[in-house]
Write a structure and sequence with these properties.
Radius of gyration: 16 Å
Shape: globular
Mean pLDDT: 82
Helix content: 25-40%
Number of helices: 4
Number of strands: 5
Low-confidence stretches: 51-55, 118-123
């Protein structure tokens, strides 16, 4: 019975917001407790990409620069030691759909309570609300550290 048990997989959505930074810290702490691995996922999409009415063009978007910023964000939030425990991934698509897809087979999906968009007084952001409804695994929604946004 030489079965190799795979480490628990924790997927965390990262968008640079205070909530996602808190979610990243929470995901790493949780993974440490359960012997898991962390995948930090950032979704990107081009304006108009989901619409037939206009071409999907964003001349200013640089995917390599965005990937570099994601890696730097993880290092800034977790420090060098913590960042070494995280695998960063950029995926094109609607953020809620990307996170739900990336969470397939995961043991936990972690998101911040609010990202950069939306209404300031909303209890949950649209992405956190959608992943809570549609994720294929347990979801943890983390509020930002410190004072309320």
């Amino acid at each position: 019975m030489d079965r190799q048990v795979e480490a628990p997989r924790v997927v965390v959505g990262v968008d640079g917001s205070p909530s996602s930074q808190a979610a990243l810290r929470w995901a790493v702490r949780y993974a440490g407790l359960v012997g898991g691995k962390v995948e930090a996922v950032t979704a990107w999409d081009l304006p108009g990409a989901g619409s037939w009415s206009a071409p999907a063009v964003d001349a200013d978007f640089d995917e390599e620069e965005a990937e570099r910023r994601l890696v730097e964000e993880v290092r800034t939030v977790l420090g060098e030691g913590g960042a070494s425990q995280v695998h960063e991934r950029m995926v094109r698509g609607n953020p809620a759909e990307v996170l739900v897809d990336q969470a397939e087979g995961a043991d936990m999906l972690v998101v911040g309570s609010r990202g950069h968009g939306g209404f300031r007084r909303a209890l949950l952001g649209s992405v956190s609300q959608q992943v809570a409804l549609h994720a294929p695994c347990p979801v943890t929604i983390v509020r930002p550290d410190g004072p309320a946004e």
